Amino acid sequence: MPSLTPGPDGRPRCGWCGDYAPFFPYHDHEWGFPVDDDIRLFEKLCLESFQSGLSWRTILDKRENFRAAFDGFDFNRMATFSEADVDRLLQNAGIIRHRGKIEAVINNAARAQEIVRDFGSLARFLWSYEPPEEEIPVPQSLTTSPSSHALSKDLKKRGWKFVGPTTVFAFMQSMGLVNDHAEGCATRAEVDAARAAFKRP
Protein backbone atom coordinates (compact mmCIF):
# COMPACT_ATOMS: atom_id res chain seq x y z
CA MET A 1 0.00 0.00 0.00
CA PRO A 2 1.25 3.55 -0.74
CA SER A 3 2.48 5.44 2.30
CA LEU A 4 0.73 8.47 3.81
CA THR A 5 2.16 11.60 5.39
CA PRO A 6 0.45 14.31 7.47
CA GLY A 7 -0.34 17.51 5.61
CA PRO A 8 -0.10 21.07 6.99
CA ASP A 9 -3.59 20.64 8.50
CA GLY A 10 -2.72 17.29 10.04
CA ARG A 11 -4.85 15.25 7.64
CA PRO A 12 -3.13 12.43 5.73
CA ARG A 13 -1.80 12.96 2.21
CA CYS A 14 0.00 10.77 -0.32
CA GLY A 15 3.42 9.91 1.04
CA TRP A 16 5.35 11.52 -1.83
CA CYS A 17 4.27 14.98 -0.57
CA GLY A 18 6.45 14.63 2.50
CA ASP A 19 9.62 14.89 0.44
CA TYR A 20 9.19 18.60 -0.34
CA ALA A 21 6.84 21.23 1.14
CA PRO A 22 5.75 22.78 -2.23
CA PHE A 23 4.37 19.36 -3.21
CA PHE A 24 1.45 19.84 -0.79
CA PRO A 25 -0.37 22.65 -2.64
CA TYR A 26 0.29 20.92 -5.97
CA HIS A 27 -1.07 17.66 -4.54
CA ASP A 28 -4.10 19.28 -2.87
CA HIS A 29 -5.23 21.54 -5.70
CA GLU A 30 -3.92 20.08 -8.97
CA TRP A 31 -2.75 16.46 -8.97
CA GLY A 32 -5.57 14.16 -10.02
CA PHE A 33 -8.26 16.79 -10.55
CA PRO A 34 -9.80 16.40 -14.03
CA VAL A 35 -8.78 18.95 -16.66
CA ASP A 36 -10.43 19.64 -20.02
CA ASP A 37 -8.51 22.77 -21.01
CA ASP A 38 -6.38 22.12 -24.10
CA ILE A 39 -3.55 24.45 -23.06
CA ARG A 40 -3.24 22.95 -19.58
CA LEU A 41 -3.31 19.44 -21.00
CA PHE A 42 -0.64 20.30 -23.56
CA GLU A 43 1.47 22.02 -20.91
CA LYS A 44 1.42 18.90 -18.74
CA LEU A 45 2.39 16.64 -21.62
CA CYS A 46 5.31 18.99 -22.30
CA LEU A 47 6.39 19.14 -18.67
CA GLU A 48 6.17 15.37 -18.31
CA SER A 49 8.35 15.08 -21.43
CA PHE A 50 10.92 17.39 -19.85
CA GLN A 51 10.75 15.37 -16.63
CA SER A 52 11.88 12.21 -18.40
CA GLY A 53 14.97 11.04 -16.50
CA LEU A 54 14.58 13.82 -13.90
CA SER A 55 12.50 14.45 -10.76
CA TRP A 56 9.13 16.22 -10.71
CA ARG A 57 10.57 18.54 -8.05
CA THR A 58 13.03 19.88 -10.63
CA ILE A 59 10.24 20.57 -13.11
CA LEU A 60 7.82 22.03 -10.56
CA ASP A 61 10.48 24.46 -9.34
CA LYS A 62 11.02 25.64 -12.92
CA ARG A 63 7.38 25.57 -14.07
CA GLU A 64 6.90 29.35 -14.21
CA ASN A 65 10.16 29.66 -16.16
CA PHE A 66 8.91 27.06 -18.63
CA ARG A 67 5.61 28.92 -19.03
CA ALA A 68 7.40 32.18 -19.77
CA ALA A 69 9.83 30.54 -22.18
CA PHE A 70 7.16 28.64 -24.13
CA ASP A 71 4.51 31.38 -24.44
CA GLY A 72 2.29 29.84 -21.78
CA PHE A 73 2.36 26.52 -23.69
CA ASP A 74 -0.04 27.95 -26.27
CA PHE A 75 0.56 25.27 -28.89
CA ASN A 76 -0.65 27.52 -31.71
CA ARG A 77 2.19 29.93 -30.90
CA MET A 78 4.71 27.20 -30.19
CA ALA A 79 4.05 25.58 -33.56
CA THR A 80 5.57 28.68 -35.19
CA PHE A 81 8.85 28.44 -33.23
CA SER A 82 11.92 28.38 -35.45
CA GLU A 83 15.49 27.14 -35.11
CA ALA A 84 16.30 30.60 -33.73
CA ASP A 85 13.79 29.94 -30.95
CA VAL A 86 15.47 26.61 -30.20
CA ASP A 87 18.81 28.39 -29.91
CA ARG A 88 17.22 31.04 -27.67
CA LEU A 89 15.72 28.39 -25.40
CA LEU A 90 19.03 26.56 -25.16
CA GLN A 91 20.47 29.72 -23.59
CA ASN A 92 17.68 29.94 -20.99
CA ALA A 93 19.13 28.81 -17.65
CA GLY A 94 15.65 28.80 -16.08
CA ILE A 95 14.51 25.70 -17.99
CA ILE A 96 15.91 22.28 -18.86
CA ARG A 97 18.31 23.00 -21.72
CA HIS A 98 17.99 19.71 -23.58
CA ARG A 99 17.87 20.19 -27.34
CA GLY A 100 16.02 16.95 -28.00
CA LYS A 101 13.27 17.74 -25.51
CA ILE A 102 12.94 21.36 -26.67
CA GLU A 103 12.65 20.29 -30.30
CA ALA A 104 10.21 17.54 -29.29
CA VAL A 105 7.71 19.85 -27.58
CA ILE A 106 7.86 22.31 -30.49
CA ASN A 107 7.14 19.41 -32.84
CA ASN A 108 4.36 18.25 -30.53
CA ALA A 109 2.72 21.68 -30.73
CA ALA A 110 2.16 21.22 -34.45
CA ARG A 111 0.90 17.68 -33.83
CA ALA A 112 -1.53 19.06 -31.22
CA GLN A 113 -2.92 21.41 -33.86
CA GLU A 114 -3.54 18.39 -36.09
CA ILE A 115 -5.43 16.59 -33.32
CA VAL A 116 -7.61 19.66 -32.77
CA ARG A 117 -8.42 19.70 -36.49
CA ASP A 118 -9.25 15.98 -36.45
CA PHE A 119 -11.11 15.71 -33.12
CA GLY A 120 -12.31 19.23 -32.30
CA SER A 121 -10.11 19.52 -29.21
CA LEU A 122 -7.04 17.98 -27.67
CA ALA A 123 -9.13 17.22 -24.58
CA ARG A 124 -11.63 15.11 -26.54
CA PHE A 125 -8.83 13.01 -28.00
CA LEU A 126 -6.93 12.54 -24.73
CA TRP A 127 -10.01 11.77 -22.62
CA SER A 128 -11.01 9.05 -25.07
CA TYR A 129 -8.16 7.10 -23.42
CA GLU A 130 -9.49 7.44 -19.87
CA PRO A 131 -8.71 4.10 -18.20
CA PRO A 132 -11.49 1.96 -16.74
CA GLU A 133 -11.37 2.00 -12.94
CA GLU A 134 -10.51 -1.68 -12.72
CA GLU A 135 -7.34 -1.11 -14.76
CA ILE A 136 -5.55 0.26 -11.66
CA PRO A 137 -6.77 -1.84 -8.72
CA VAL A 138 -4.34 -0.40 -6.14
CA PRO A 139 -3.45 3.31 -6.20
CA GLN A 140 0.18 4.13 -7.03
CA SER A 141 0.90 0.50 -7.82
CA LEU A 142 1.72 1.07 -11.50
CA THR A 143 3.99 3.28 -13.59
CA THR A 144 2.31 2.33 -16.87
CA SER A 145 -1.04 0.85 -17.80
CA PRO A 146 -2.70 -0.66 -20.88
CA SER A 147 -4.34 2.71 -21.52
CA SER A 148 -1.08 4.64 -21.22
CA HIS A 149 0.55 2.20 -23.65
CA ALA A 150 -2.34 2.66 -26.08
CA LEU A 151 -2.29 6.46 -25.88
CA SER A 152 1.50 6.55 -26.17
CA LYS A 153 1.34 4.35 -29.26
CA ASP A 154 -1.33 6.55 -30.86
CA LEU A 155 0.55 9.77 -30.11
CA LYS A 156 3.77 8.35 -31.56
CA LYS A 157 1.89 7.20 -34.66
CA ARG A 158 0.73 10.81 -35.05
CA GLY A 159 4.33 12.04 -34.86
CA TRP A 160 4.61 13.07 -31.20
CA LYS A 161 7.97 12.66 -29.44
CA PHE A 162 9.04 11.99 -25.82
CA VAL A 163 5.62 10.51 -25.01
CA GLY A 164 6.46 7.01 -23.81
CA PRO A 165 3.94 4.99 -21.74
CA THR A 166 5.51 6.02 -18.39
CA THR A 167 5.39 9.70 -19.34
CA VAL A 168 1.80 9.31 -20.52
CA PHE A 169 0.77 7.47 -17.35
CA ALA A 170 2.19 10.29 -15.19
CA PHE A 171 0.17 12.69 -17.34
CA MET A 172 -2.99 10.64 -16.77
CA GLN A 173 -2.41 10.65 -13.00
CA SER A 174 -1.91 14.39 -12.81
CA MET A 175 -4.70 15.48 -15.18
CA GLY A 176 -7.39 13.38 -13.52
CA LEU A 177 -7.85 10.66 -16.13
CA VAL A 178 -7.31 8.34 -13.18
CA ASN A 179 -7.58 8.94 -9.44
CA ASP A 180 -4.29 7.59 -8.17
CA HIS A 181 -4.37 9.23 -4.75
CA ALA A 182 -3.62 6.71 -2.03
CA GLU A 183 -6.44 5.11 -0.07
CA GLY A 184 -6.74 7.17 3.10
CA CYS A 185 -5.40 10.35 1.48
CA ALA A 186 -7.66 13.29 2.37
CA THR A 187 -7.62 14.52 -1.24
CA ARG A 188 -8.73 11.21 -2.76
CA ALA A 189 -12.42 11.80 -1.95
CA GLU A 190 -12.21 15.34 -3.34
CA VAL A 191 -10.81 14.01 -6.60
CA ASP A 192 -13.50 11.30 -6.71
CA ALA A 193 -16.17 14.00 -6.36
CA ALA A 194 -14.54 16.19 -9.02
CA ARG A 195 -14.31 13.28 -11.44
CA ALA A 196 -17.95 12.33 -10.80
CA ALA A 197 -19.07 15.89 -11.58
CA PHE A 198 -16.73 16.28 -14.55
CA LYS A 199 -18.32 16.41 -18.00
CA ARG A 200 -16.11 14.43 -20.34
CA PRO A 201 -15.23 16.30 -23.55
Note down, in words, how this protein is organized.
- This protein has 201 residues and is mainly alpha-helical.
- Helices cover 53% and strands 3% of the residues.
- It has one domain (35-197): Hypothetical protein, domain 2 (Endonuclease III, domain 1), CATH 1.10.340.
- The protein has helices at residues 23-29, 38-51, 56-61, 63-69, 75-78, 83-90, 99-119, 122-127, 146-157, 165-174, 186-197, and strands spanning 4-6, 12-14.
- The protein is globular.
What secondary-structure arrangement, pairings included, does this model have?
Elements: E1 4-6, E2 12-14, H1 23-29, H2 38-51, H3 56-61, H4 63-69, H5 75-78, H6 83-90, H7 99-119, H8 122-127, H9 146-157, H10 165-174, H11 186-197
Helix pairs in contact: 2-7, 2-10, 9-10
In short:
The chain has about 200 residues and is mainly α.
Return the CATH topology.
Answer: Endonuclease III, domain 1
Which CATH-level-2 architecture?
Orthogonal Bundle
The residue-averaged pLDDT reads: 96
Q: Low-confidence segments, ≥5 residues, pLDDT <50?
A: none
Please give the domain count: 1
Please report the number of helical segments. 11
Rg result: 17 Å
User: What does the largest sheet look like?
Assistant: 2 strands, antiparallel
Termini separation comes to: 32 Å
What percent of residues adopt helix (DSSP H or I)? 40-55%
| Strand order in the sheet with the most strands | 1-2
Order of helices and strands: EEHHHHHHHHHHH
- Under the CATH scheme, which class? Mainly Alpha
Beta-strand percent range: under 5%
Shape: globular
Number of strands: 2
Say which CATH homologous superfamily is assigned.
Answer: Hypothetical protein, domain 2
Structural class: mainly alpha
Protein name: DNA-3-methyladenine glycosylase I
Keywords: Metal-binding, Zinc
GO molecular function: DNA-3-methyladenine glycosylase activity; metal ion binding
Organism: Marimonas arenosa
